[in-house]
Amino acid sequence: MDFLPVFLNIKSQSCLVVGGGDVATRKSRTLLQAGAKVHVLAPECNESMQKMVEQGKVVYHPEKFTSAKLDGYKLVIAATDDMEVNELVSTEAKKRNMPVNVVDAPDLCSFILPSIIDRSPVMVAVSSGGSSPVLARLLRTRMETLIPASYGRLAALVGSFRDAVKQRFDNTNDRRKFWEKVLEGPVTEMMFAGQDEAARGALEQAINNGADMVEKRGEVYLVGAGPGDPDLLTFRALRLLQQADVIVYDRLVSQPVLDLARRDADMIYVGKKKSDHTLPQEEINQLLVRLAKEGKRVLRLKGGDPFVFGRGGEEIDTLMDEGVLFQVVPGITAASGCAAYAGIPLTHRDHAQSVVFATGHLQDNSIDLNWKALAQPNQTVVFYMGLTGLSIICEQLVENGMSANTPIALIQRGTTPEQVVMHGTLETMPDMFNSSHIKPPTLIIVGDVVRLHEKLSWFKPEKI
After folding, report:
1. The pLDDT of residue 318 is above 60
2. Do 205 and 224 have their domain in common?
3. What does residue 302 show for φ and ψ, rounded to 5 degrees?
4. Does residue 254 share a domain with residue 242?
5. Which residues are catalytic?
6. Is this model's pTM higher than 0.90 or not?
């Protein structure tokens, strides 16, 4: 171990930064985040530093460094582009046993500044001992995805109950077991889901009941899987995928997303397509209830966003009636994901000032929509599940006022390597589609913004 990892309390302490350039500015901001009173010493400073001075965030001393300038400070950081000055700062600080950091010079440092993951009061520091700051930053980026932002709130909650737990459990080992059981259970997920009061109540109950009485409760995670590209998953979706005991997924969830699930999780397919439902919706609702009541962590994975034509509302309605814990994790809906990957902005100052989502799902060979409202000028209309009724959509939009020359695009398997974009007009698209190989899942976008596809198209996957 080249350096002893230490977290230093510098709140309200005067700290000195020698230098007035970009690096000195970044180091000053880090010290400010830790609550320090920052003084900057340099003959001149850049515009960013000057703004902090004007805002009263730092105290500026327009002087050259001398050893006497170290008096009264808790620590010092040397961040000049003059190595002689940096070496002098290091030598004089060490004479005074003052912590000193010299940027990009580990040999001159008595402490180094790591890459920081700030989940205050939880702090995680990643360091390469000064040998490769870029590597440390890359590791920090990886870890950011594994440590939810809500850990700070969770730590604060736990801290507020430490004394109560000490009174409840005399033995240190019993306290450790209690906290392990609680923090691996529903209290943590309640905090992550923003249910702070419920988490506090559950923790109070756990303390009263004792460690052996902590209830094993199942939970349902209603998660949006996005339009297909696994890189579009949210951090929370990825974390829950990797901890769920059971994955209940539908037809629109891509295989690369499923591949991110915990390897030993049970996988249950409940997909639906036209006239072919693996399970009716009511049976899916009851399946989620049953699995959760068995104490399992159930991840209900839906393509796109669960609240945009995903029947997520119906499922959580049942969960609430049955008293099952749940949380909802939004996903990138197909409209925004597929449109973005096709180079079709859903709104644009010159083409569309509003956007409408509609379902093109056929019911008794008809599509019951407010066609007048959809056929408005300067508006983009996105149809989900509309491929079977494409000719009806085109016909009705024209009959209700849209020009037959209005652009329309079909986006098959958007955001994935199998993405195909076909564009035409309301007049030409039905025949184009009939002679094509376009299949579901396909999104339909109607509006003037489709004209931008040829210019703005950027995602062009190689077809294997």
Report:
1. yes
2. no
3. -125, 140
4. yes
5. 250, 272
6. no
